[in-house]
Amino acid sequence: MPGLPRLRERYDLAIVGGGHAGLQAAEKAALLRRSAALIDRGPKYSRSFYAPRMDNIPGFPEGVSGHRLLDQQVAAVRAQSAWVDYFSPARAGAVERTDGEFVVRFDWLKQSLAARARVVVLAMGVVDRIPEVGGRIDPIFPWANQALVDFCLVCDGHDLVDRSVGVLGHDAFAARTALDILDFAPRSVEILTHGAPPRFGATEEEHHRLASELEARAVPIVTGTIVGFDEIREHRFGVRFADGVHRSYDRGFSALGWYDMHDAVPRALGCAFDDEGFVRVDDDSRALDGAGRPIAGLYVVGDQKSGWNQIPEAWASAERAVLHAWSAYL
To answer: How far is it, in rounded angstroms, from Cα 64 to Cα 153?
Structure first.
């Protein structure tokens, strides 16, 4: 079919994941005149796809939506079709190391294919845990899509100044997030545990320390079970509870951690992980093994690696990975 990529016998790089980091890695490979297979489930799987406005992207003083930014990156990669074969929507399966090269197995257009490459860049990202209401995760989507519920404090904390905030979560991550939000001078912060008993640490000592700090800084803990959301027309985050109580906030903030960190592939390749479950890398985005040594030819970029989860950082990690691979292997 015209316009569709054809699998080459061998690539310089195989890039698994087509969010901001994976797209940047493919673009950089093309600019260095190196062949790349980009295996992408599709832009809608990127964490930023539904973000209505992001303010930390250079060149967009009025902010830019995640959808628009991804569209521009996809267009840039498609313009490099002489160097990049862009397989999307495609689902990657196993990644294997054999005979001095990598084999990335993936499904695309009802075909099972294998891309062979000297270098692999993993840019598979992570998936946020979404609060379940009535056994479903979609009730909160309209509020998230209207920027009434945030997921990234370093991305959106600046928008919480003088606002009331309801933090969704019940563990140490939720407690620390609520305390960190206070740095952005909100009008008020409350923790909504959604029926779960608060457990702010792996030990009793940590739990009591964080609970005491929350109390000292006037952060209430609301333990009722959430049954629904409302007030979207008023551009507010309204929360209904099973006992009939209703609470209203300017913003919600999800502090539930990660649903899927896509760790199966890096684990199978011998990668080491930090305490939060992110892949350990060095300054060149090279994946590290359990002894702290770089795994030859394997890079991990974007949200999947240890470090800050930011789009500019995702771009930078992709740049570092491809530049190092170009100089060391290609």
So the answer is: 17
d(CA 47, CA 74): 15
pLDDT of residue 99: 86
Q: What distances in angstroms separate CA 162 from CA 42, 149, 174, 208, one per listed residue?
A: 37, 16, 20, 28
Q: What is the pLDDT of residues 152-164, one digit of tens each?
A: 999 999 999 999 9
Strand partners, 246: 240
Regarding pTM above 0.90, the answer is yes
Question: Per the omega criterion (within 30 degrees of 0), is the bond before 61 cis?
Answer: no
Cα separation, 23 vs 21, whole angstroms: 6
Q: What is the pLDDT of residues 169-205, one digit of tens each?
A: 999 999 999 999 999 999 999 999 999 999 999 899 9
Burial of 202 (0-12, 13-18, 19+ CB in 10 A): exposed
> Could you tell me which residues are beta bridge partners of residue 105?
114
Q: Which residues contact 284 (CB under 8 A, 6 or more apart)?
A: 294, 299, 320, 321, 323, 324
CA–CA distance, 265 with 124 (Å, rounded to integer): 9
SS percent in the chain: helix, strand, coil, step 5:
30, 30, 40
Burial 102-132 (b: 16+ CB within 10 A, else e): bbbebebeeeeeebbbbbbbbbbbbeebbbe
Rounded to 5 degrees, what angle do the CA atoms 319, 321, 326 make? 95
Q: What is the CA radius of gyration of the chain?
A: 21
Show Cβ contacts of residue 72 under 8 Å, excluding neighbours closer than 6 positions. Answer: none
Beta strand 294-300 with 286-288: parallel, antiparallel or unpaired? antiparallel
Neighbours of 234 (CB within 10 A): 10
Which residues, in sequence order, are bridge partners of residue 229?
239
The vertex-223 CA angle with 218 and 216, nearest 5°, equals 15
